[in-house]
Specification:
Structural class: mainly alpha
Distance between the termini: 90 Å
Radius of gyration: 33 Å
Strand order of the largest sheet: 1-2-3
CATH topology of the largest domain: Rossmann fold
CATH superfamily of the largest domain: HUPs
Number of strands: 14
Shape: elongated
CATH class of the largest domain: Alpha Beta
Length: 515
RNA sequence: GCCCCGUUCGUCUAGCUGGCCUAGGACGCAAGAUUUUCAUUCUUGAAAUCAGGGGUUCGAAUCCCCUACGGGGUACCA
């Protein structure tokens, strides 16, 4: 019988969610929805020493922002709960003991200090220590110790861990959905701890038990898990759950944009792009890490960018909505190698989506940005500015840097532009123009009338059109940038334009005399 | 060190069942057009001898082997 597709995203609440984790979740989501299955959120908080307050809330909020919805799990509920591993603590012990009984696992009484000492000894001989089939008999565990001794230690309440007992020289095969067939020999693998002395399972045990109990059909996770996957396969075998063992897909990692290694928290701060979906303040150090949301990225753009980082549809289409991605997604088209994050492409994606935002919405966003700068203008005015400059922006915050002169008259004039655009005698010519502009009656079509006048004035007096227009631009904008002069004149209106021209005449006139 | 995975333009990638590849697209870059400015937009261009070397084959980016390089793992972390 065909099983209903069920996948899970299982982060640890040890800090903010890394953008690579977001991609892993996205691929899980796309796969689940594409196949009409369930997508669940499980919190793997078995390491109490690394638990970070607020991380779980952060994770949930991140997906809310991105618009990725879980069908089951922490914060949603479901028939297979609880979905927080710390709340499932008691049930893992039974499974660990079951493995000991079956001979697939054993008690180990070595203290961390003892193991450290052994490692040091090996290191001194330039050898590597591994708790495995070759060394386990020389360590203190229920395999090497007599039955009476083990019972005595257990009764005394000695601290112990339960380790998996890898069989000797056995090839373990696994078929990865992305990488194909992978083979590893059990003799090379170490006897991983399954159950810790604090009564908590490790990832390996909890993961397999929960995936089985939650009827997970596909495990889609980061490549860092590939080396321990043979252990996971063996665990399914040991429990006798091979029939329902999920299929595995190990995703390539996200790499640093420059240099080597996987993308880390530091790279973001250093290279100026976020590594986290949302801004995060470390509860202990108070250190702030930037987030995509706060940096002005649209969730749709982040999703689209992430989806294409390591996957493609096989067509030349690059812009996809979440729903479209669901339609075309397939695990087979995920690439095998790591991908470097590309900031420029990320900006381009955001630009694409920003252009789809309505004038109305963009105006509202800009209004609140202006408010934070203590600037209040009518919505009509802001909307007319937005219409003129929106296409040159990648982010909402670019609206301001591309239109500040609409709200504040220039105090300074770009030096380069000054030399090039305000030639000898321009001050006098501008005075004449200013006076003439003053004669034109104000009104909605003032800009048009002003331009008509300028055209005529320029031809009648044999002036250079480029020079005149650019000088006016310099006076009004303070630079050589900006939209069409006619549009600027229309938006700013008669009084403001003339006042700026006069101000420029005065200021630049002084500058010229000083020279 | 050992184990596993990977390697096509600067970056993301197409190519996977060998010939349609003088290797395609996108970002970025350059030039031109439009905009009497800047940006947008459009057009064009530069950019990978397919990591290197051996095979197999009439024919290989595509299959096999070796080497190099990159990444991951090697915790009572996930």
């Amino acid at each position: 019988m065909e099983r209903r597709v069920r996948v899970r995203f299982a982060p640890s609440p040890t800090g903010p969610l890394h953008i690579g984790g977001v991609r892993t979740a996205l691929y899980n989501y796309l796969f689940a929805k594409k196949n009409g299955g369930d997508f669940l959120l499980r919190i793997e908080d078995t390491d109490r020493t690394r638990f970070v307050e607020g991380a779980e809330r952060y994770i949930i909020e991140s997906f809310e922002w991105l618009g990725i919805k879980f069908d089951e799990g922490v914060g949603i509920g479901g028939d297979y709960g609880p979905y927080r591993q710390s709340e499932r603590k008691d049930m893992y012990r039974k499974y660990a003991l079951e493995l000991v009984e079956k001979g697939w696992a054993y008690y180990a009484f070595d203290t961390p200090e003892e193991l450290d000492a052994v490692r040091k000894r090996y290191e001194a001989e330039k050898k590597n220590f591994q708790y495995d089939c070759k060394t386990r008999m020389s360590l203190r565990n229920s395999l090497s110790l007599s039955r009476q001794e083990v019972e005595r230690l257990l009764e005394e309440g000695r601290a112990y861990v339960i380790r998996f007992r890898f069989p000797e020289n056995e090839d373990i095969h696994l078929d990865d959905l992305i990488r194909g067939h992978v083979k590893m020999n059990s003799s090379l693998l170490d006897d991983k701890v399954l159950y810790k002395s604090d009564g908590m399972p490790t990832y390996h045990l909890a993961n397999i038990v929960d995936d089985h109990l939650m009827k997970i059909t596909h495990v889609i996770r980061g490549e860092e898990w590939l080396p321990s996957c043979p252990l996971h396969v063996m665990l399914y075998k040991a429990f006798g759950w091979e029939d329902t063992m999920p299929a595995f897909a190990h995703l390539p990692l996200l790499l640093k944009p420059e240099g080597n290694g996987k993308l880390s928290k530091r790279d973001g701060d250093r290279l100026g792009f976020p590594v986290f979906p949302l801004q995060w303040t470390d509860p202990k150090t108070k250190e702030v890490s930037s987030g995509y949301r706060e940096s002005g990225y649209l969730p749709e753009a982040v999703i689209n960018m992430l989806a294409l980082l390591g996957w493609n549809s096989g067509t030349e289409q690059e812009l996809f909505s979440l729903d479209e991605l669901v339609q075309v997604f397939s695990i087979e088209r995920i690439s095998k190698h790591g991908a470097k994050f590309d900031l420029e492409k990320a900006k381009w994606f955001n630009h694409q989506y920003l252009m789809k935002v309505s004038d109305e919405e963009l105006t509202d966003a800009f209004m609140s940005d202006l408010k934070s700068r203590n600037i209040e203008r009518s919505k009509d005015f802001v909307a007319s500015v937005v219409r003129l400059i929106r296409e040159r922006c990648n982010f909402v915050k670019d609206l301001w840097s591309n239109s500040d002169y609409f709200f504040v008259a220039p105090e300074e004039y770009a030096e380069k532009a000054l030399k090039k655009r305000w030639k000898d005698g321009m001050t006098e010519k501008m005075m004449v123009i200013s006076n003439n502009l003053q004669q034109i009656s104000d009104g909605k079509d003032w800009g048009q009338k002003a331009e008509d006048f300028l055209m005529k004035h320029i031809t009648d007096n044999g002036l250079n059109m480029g020079q005149v227009m650019n000088s006016i631009r310099l006076a009004v904008v303070g630079d050589t940038k900006g939209p069409n002069m006619l549009d600027i004149m229309n938006v700013l209106g008669k009084d403001e334009i003339i006042s700026r021209i006069n101000k420029a005449i005065e200021r630049i006139g002084i500058l010229c005399r000083e020279e």
